[in-house]
Automatic annotation (TrEMBL):
InterPro entries for the chain: 4pyrrol_syn_uPrphyn_synt_sf, 4pyrrol_synth_uPrphyn_synth, UROS/Hem4
Organism ancestry: Bacteria, Bacillati, Bacillota, Bacilli, Bacillales
Annotated protein name in UniProt: Uroporphyrinogen-III synthase
Stored Gene3D superfamilies: 3.40.50.10090
SUPFAM superfamilies in alphabetical order: HemD-like (SSF69618)
Length: 267
């Protein structure tokens, strides 16, 4: 039986949309792509000064939040001729790692983290760092795509001097896409929205706040539209926006997300 028969399912991502659409169609649903994640671009020049600072100064802590972002920083350091110095600094310092991809990369680099957050969320990382002493410590934080003000505030309130490394930047999605999706949400013409990154959630709700329709969108998600997250980090972003009913699979995969949605409709 087609569990998604008659259901209109929005895909908020911009990657692997064809594969996700096919999965939805196989379950009888109608996929609609509304990419809420703006383009992401690499700006290595944005971190040159910070990387040189790391190479030439004492660093007490490195906090790595993504594996791909950490690799990017090492590539940028290679171009600056300081990769070996940076790697040694990382090995000599205390290291905190968020998520299994980051942990696996550090293992390949023969770096053993002092603090590990396997939960994969920023709040989970903050919780694990809560017992650490950052007074008068220089802490380098690797970020990917967007700032993390809660993490930076946490470190600074505990006396750290924070250096942020953010080589990737997001560009906002098209306003027409946001407008269309909000209309679909508030008119009940869609049944579920599948979010594949936390930044998609942020862009959607920043738009709703600008338009003064946040309450209407939250009401739609609490009554007639299912909010679906690919994993814990994305689910955390949805809950931070006041969405208490979030469908999230145990395994962080796009296919697993669609299967979890099917299971929810089967109840």
């Amino acid at each position: 039986m087609d569990k998604l028969s008659g259901k209109k399912i929005v895909i908020a991502g911009s990657r692997k949309t064809e594969e996700m659409s096919l999965l939805i169609q196989k379950q009888g649903g109608t996929p609609v792509v509304r990419p809420l994640q703006g383009f992401i671009y690499l700006d290595e020049s944005a971190v040159e000064k910070e990387l040189l600072f790391c190479a030439n100064n004492q660093v007490d802590w490195f906090v790595f939040t993504t594996g791909v972002g950490t690799e990017t920083l090492l590539d940028a350091a290679e171009k600056l001729g300081v990769a070996s110095i940076l790697l040694q600094k990382m090995k000599d310092a205390n290291v905190a790692a968020r998520g299994y991809k980051t942990i696996n990369l550090l293992k390949k680099l023969e770096i053993k983290p002092t603090v590990i957050d396997e939960d994969g969320t920023i709040q989970g990382l903050i919780n694990r760092l809560d017992d650490c002493d950052f007074a008068n410590q220089t802490v380098v934080v690797q970020l990917h795509g967007e700032p993390q003000p809660a993490l930076i505030q946490f470190l600074e309130e505990r006396g750290a001097t924070v250096v942020q490394l953010l080589p990737y930047r997001h560009i906002e999605p098209e306003s027409a896409v946001l407008e269309t999706l909000c209309h679909e949400l508030t008119t009940g013409s869609i049944d579920a929205v599948c979010f594949t990154t936390a930044v998609q959630v942020r862009y959607l709700f920043e738009y709703t706040r600008r338009q003064g329709i946040s309450d209407a969108v939250r009401q739609a998600f609490s009554t007639q539209v299912k909010a679906v997250a690919v994993g814990k980090v994305t689910a955390e972003a949805l809950r931070d926006e006041g969405l208490n009913q979030v469908i999230v699979p145990e395994t962080e995969r796009m296919g697993a997300m669609i299967i979890e949605l099917v299971k929810d409709y089967s109840k």
